[in-house]
Design brief:
The complex is a heterodimer of chains A (259) and B (546). Chain A contains 12 helices and 2 strands. By secondary structure, chain A is mainly alpha-helical. In chain A, a hairpin with a 5-residue loop joins strand 1 and strand 2. Chain B has a domain of 247 residues: Up-down Bundle (Cytochrome Bc1 Complex, Chain C). Helices cover 61% and strands 6% of the residues of chain B. Chain B has a two-stranded antiparallel sheet with strand order 1-5. Classes of the chains: A mainly alpha (259), B mainly alpha (546). The interface between A and B is large, with 61 and 76 residues.
């Protein structure tokens, strides 16, 4: 009898311990709606992605493995039109028109996330402007991003035809996801390297200096590219106008009096 | 000359008019009457390209005027302060006082940003105008005797303006200019043996230190502009002394100047032109942003941005460094950074090449005469070819300096552009030289054709026997003169190698080189013999000839 009691107590203790430490999230994840989403995502995946990334997301010679890239990577790549790439030609896969609906992208993302854990799609609270420190964001941007994306995020060249794209008009959510996942040549800035708050600061800074409502205090920004476009402007419009004026003045000379 | 009692009375009893009295007062003390008498009626020829130098002078004056305004608010100090001005995205950032005061000028001083932008745009236009002015002088041969010294003055002004511009660009201590100053530090460090000493000397210790803004400031606002102002006055005095050159034309000779007098015509024109130049630059400064330091942020040595370029006039130096392979030699624990040192040796050579050109040309051609009539570029194909080749090399290096923007905007590989520039720097000037020379010779042939056969009128005539001919209209006497006014030189030959006693003398290598170069200037491959009066008469006298 004592043995039975001890066994029961031990079982209860282990069971309690198990229920305390068991990863409850995954156990809950397998609900019917979720698995339906995964099935839908898998169907979309087989049509649009499997030819390069393999039938189970394991990757092939034409595309990397997607196990563990997370929903954020899928959302970024597909909703900016970079994926499906359509062709592996060229130095870098460019941004193009997105052909998927947000629901489909979510299905794809859920499927890829089910292959292995990775960063999830950020929420408005994470990338929204509330509570962000713009000046801090500017400092972080100049330290971490400007080397490739230029002072105000107008993009720059990388080696062999690759480039850091212009960040003007890029949705805050996509900037967040790009930092989180490091697409193509970009290094990733996970929360361990750059905190959620810092990412928010950078996004707020970009919106302040490069957003739709940005006022250029000095007039035309000439692409925000620095002295090269300024020099071109000085030669073409500055000197061009002055030469035109010189020709005009020289053509209007004093007439000799007829005696 | 009849003196009436009336005027006599006035001269004795009444005072002269106020203007006359002021003039008399000033003349008695300053001697302005003889100065004005000698110069007021000075004649200047009329051509739009002669006003390019004026553009330089006026933009320089505009730079000085706006620069004085900026010094009233700028603090040339590198003390660290926290920003609390009007520009939100930099609130609370640490920066130097220089940057902070430039932000203050841009956002909180009335008219500050406009004046800053006028100052900077005028600087870019000033250097550009000097280059164009120099091209005009070069391609028309206006640098020939007696104007070689003035050519050097102008050249010095150009070189000094590069450094004045660079020091000014560095003053706000923003991230872009700080990167440029860092570049200069790298250049200094690459100098063998004394590099580190030079760098420590200029920056007062380890880069960036706390001194360079104050040092660059006195160089930028006092030393260099002072020298430039003096040189500019000397440049103008020599223009007065030599008198202005003119293009060939009827009535224009090497001994006269045909044009309008300084007073009143050119005074009015030049005064008006100053305001036009000021107006154009002010409009540009009001429309377009330049050097937006608020977007660049304050300089911090641990930060850098892509697209960090100097202002355009230093772009060719940037190109030289960007495309140079990163060679280095390590010997006895010392590093010789050829990847930077070779470009900074080539940089002055590119500039010196244009400074010494007048002396080389006069040596090669043996031409020691005074020239006051300008050449048309086509009539001196070799000189024109050299000029275009230099410009081609310069432009190729500008491409190198902006290789990243060429890459992103034309979807090219930056590595391919770099290789294009490396090869193009040597090949493209040669191609440009050959092409320019051919084009010049073609234009000379066309001139000859026009003189002998007249202008193509576009009228097609059918002759009675069915042949179609185009009617050529003979040129006017003035046009004929203008097209044939230039002098064609014979190439300088190597003198007799045997003297009257039959003793052979040694021909030096320099002499041989000179004869060869002279042939390339004036040999039969370099100029089309201009039509002679006999040829003209022969062709125009025959009936039915066209």
């Amino acid at each position: 009898m004592a043995a039975v009691v001890v066994l029961l107590i031990a079982l209860a203790a282990i069971g309690g311990l198990y229920s305390a430490v068991a990863p409850t999230g995954q156990a809950k994840a397998d609900e019917s709606a979720q698995s339906l989403t995964i099935t839908e995502g898998q169907r979309l995946y087989s049509v649009g992605c499997a030819s390069c990334h393999g039938t189970g997301g394991q990757g092939s010679s034409d595309g990397p493995s997607l196990v563990g890239v997370g929903a954020a990577a899928v959302d970024f790549q597909v909703s900016t039109g970079r994926m499906p790439a359509a062709t592996a030609q060229g130095a870098q896969i460019p941004k193009k028109r997105n052909i998927y609906s947000q629901a489909q992208i979510d299905q794809l993302a859920t499927y890829i996330a089910s292959l292995g854990t990775g960063p999830s799609v950020p929420t408005e609270a994470q990338y929204g402007p509330e509570g962000a420190d713009i000046a801090k964001g500017g400092e972080l941007f100049r330290t971490n991003c400007a080397q490739c994306h230029n002072f105000t995020g107008h993009g720059g060249a990388l080696t062999h035809g690759k480039f850091a794209p212009d960040l003007e008009g890029v949705a805050p959510k996509h900037i967040y996801e790009a930092m989180q996942t490091g697409p193509q040549n970009m290094p990733s800035f996970p929360d361990t390297t750059m905190s959620e708050k810092n990412k928010k600061d950078i996004i707020a800074y970009l919106d302040a200096v490069n957003g739709d409502d940005t006022v250029e205090p000095g007039g035309l920004s000439l692409g925000g590219l620095g002295p090269v476009s300024e020099g071109l402007f000085a030669w073409i419009f500055g000197l061009g106008a002055l030469i035109a004026v010189a020709v005009w003045v020289a053509a209007r000379t004093a007439k000799a009096k007829k005696s | 000359m009849s003196t009436t009692p009336n005027t006599d009375a006035r001269s004795s009893r009444e005072k002269a008019p106020a203007g006359e009295r002021v003039a008399d007062w000033a003349d008695g003390r300053l001697g302005i009457y003889s100065l004005a008498k000698a110069n007021m009626r000075k004649i200047f020829p009329d051509h739009w390209s002669f006003m390019l130098g004026e553009v330089c002078m006026y933009s320089f004056i505009i730079i000085i005027l706006t620069g004085v305004y900026l010094t009233l608010f700028f603090h040339p100090s590198m003390n660290e302060v926290e920003y609390h001005g009007s520009y939100i995205p930099l609130q609370g950032q640490l920066m130097s006082e220089a940057f902070n005061s430039t932000m203050h000028i841009s956002f909180d001083v009335r008219g500050g940003l406009l004046i800053r932008q006028i100052h900077h745009w005028a600087a870019l236009i000033f250097v550009a105008a000097m280059m164009i002015h120099m091209m005009r002088v070069f391609f028309t041969g206006a640098f020939r005797k007696p104007r070689e010294v003035n050519w050097l003055f102008g050249w010095l002004l150009l070189v000094l303006s590069l450094f004045t511009g660079f020091t000014g660009y560095s003053l706000p201590d923003d991230l872009l200019s700080g990167t440029g100053v860092r570049f200069i530090e790298g250049v200094l460090l690459s100098v063998p043996i004394v590099g580190t000493y030079l760098s420590f000397f200029i920056f007062g210790g380890e880069f960036p230190g706390g001194d360079f803004v104050a040092r660059f400031y006195s160089v930028h606002i006092l030393l260099l502009p002072g020298i430039m102002l003096g040189l500019m006055v000397a440049h103008l005095i020599l223009v007065f002394y030599h008198k202005h050159t003119q293009f060939a034309g009827p009535g224009k000779t090497n001994n006269n100047v045909v044009g309008m007098p300084l007073l009143p015509v050119y005074m009015a024109k030049a005064g008006g032109f100053f305001f036009l130049v000021f107006g154009v630059i002010a409009v540009i400064a009001a429309i377009a942003s330049i050097n937006p330091i608020w977007a660049m942020g304050p300089y911090r040595p641990d930060q850098v941005s892509t697209g960090a370029q100097p202002d355009w006039y230093m772009g060719f130096a940037e190109g030289l460094v960007r495309v140079m392979p990163g060679w280095e030699i390590n010997l006895w624990g010392h590093t010789l950074v050829l990847g930077v040192f070779i470009p900074i040796v080539v940089f002055p050579l590119v500039l010196v090449a244009i400074a010494v050109y007048p002396f080389i040309e006069s040596w090669v051609t043996g031409d020691k005469n005074e020239h006051h009539i300008l050449d048309r570029p086509r009539n001196t194909p070799t000189r024109t070819g050299f000029g275009v080749a230099w410009l081609a090399a310069y432009f190729v290096m500008l491409i190198g300096g902006g290789n990243d923007l060429w890459a992103t905007h034309f979807h090219l590989s930056i590595n391919a552009i770099t290789w294009f520039v490396r090869i193009g720097f040597f090949v493209i000037p040669v191609l440009a030289f050959i092409a320019t020379k051919r084009i010049c010779l073609g234009l000379q042939r066309r001139d000859k054709d026009k003189v002998l056969h007249g202008r193509e009128s576009g009228i097609i005539k059918r002759l009675p026997h069915g042949e179609f001919i185009e009617v050529h209209e003979p040129l006017s006497q003035e046009a004929l003169h203008t097209l044939t006014a230039h002098h064609q030189y014979e190439p300088a030959m190597i003198g007799a190698t045997v003297d009257e006693n039959g003793v052979e003398r040694k021909v030096s290598g320099a002499e041989k080189l000179r004869a060869k170069l002279s042939k390339s200037y004036y040999g039969e491959d370099s100029q089309i013999p201009k039509p002679t009066a006999e040829e003209y008469k022969e062709i125009t006298s025959g009936h039915g000839h066209h």
